[in-house]
């Protein structure tokens, strides 16, 4: 019986070490992405941005290109192109099939609830998201939320107006693969074009 107790302790310590290392590694990747995003925003700024520059902006897969700031949480996170697991390990993922801020349609950003979107359960209607791009800064106010099934793709599509859609796994405190997604719909309230 003592060998069983010792085995369980060793297994527990091994799992704890594994999860600790995974968390450390993910934090390191997000720190690198944040630094890359800041550099990208500065380097890609040009003095003669216009509507053509905004409408033609694009990013390569897994490229860090912008910053998401959540004033209520006083938190900035790097935005990368793509929503595959590698992209989401680096930071906030931009869904490639949607446009970028300022382009007049739906922009979708996604992230993990237990890493980049930690504490998103504190956000409420009226709170804001600020997206900094190489061509400007865009402020959006949360006006709607909904909870959808994890496999529900109905939130993706043309909306006929500029909307920032931010999604994460739900329930926020769920352990393992979450069965649902929490979706924030935020509408533009201010923009500064560089």
From TrEMBL:
- List the Pfam families hit by this protein, alphabetically: Sortase
Query: Which parts pass through the membrane?
Result: 6-24
Record-given protein name: Sortase SrtA
Gene encoding the protein: srtA
Species per Swiss-Prot/TrEMBL record:
Alkalibacterium iburiense
Keywords annotated in UniProt: Hydrolase, Membrane, Transmembrane, Transmembrane helix
């Amino acid at each position: 019986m003592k060998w069983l107790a010792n085995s369980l302790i060793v297994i527990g310590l091994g799992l704890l070490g594994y999860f600790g290392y995974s968390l450390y590694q993910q934090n390191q990747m997000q720190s690198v992405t944040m630094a890359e995003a800041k550099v990208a925003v500065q380097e890609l700024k040009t003095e003669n941005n216009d509507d053509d520059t905004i409408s033609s902006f694009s990013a390569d897969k897994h490229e860090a290109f912008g910053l998401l700031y959540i004033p209520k949480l006083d938190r900035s996170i790097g935005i990368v192109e793509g929503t595959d697991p590698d992209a989401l390990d680096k930071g906030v993922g931009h869904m490639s099939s949607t446009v970028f801020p300022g382009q007049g349609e739906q922009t979708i950003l996604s992230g993990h609830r237990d890493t980049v979107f930690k504490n998103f359960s504190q956000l409420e209607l009226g709170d804001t998201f600020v997206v900094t791009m190489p061509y400007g800064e865009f402020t959006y106010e949360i006006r709607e939320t909904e909870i959808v099934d994890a496999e529900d793709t109905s939130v993706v599509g043309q909306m006929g107006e500029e909307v920032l859609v931010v999604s994460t796994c739900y329930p926020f405190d769920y352990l393992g693969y979450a069965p649902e997604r929490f979706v924030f719909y935020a509408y533009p309230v201010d923009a500064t074009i560089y």
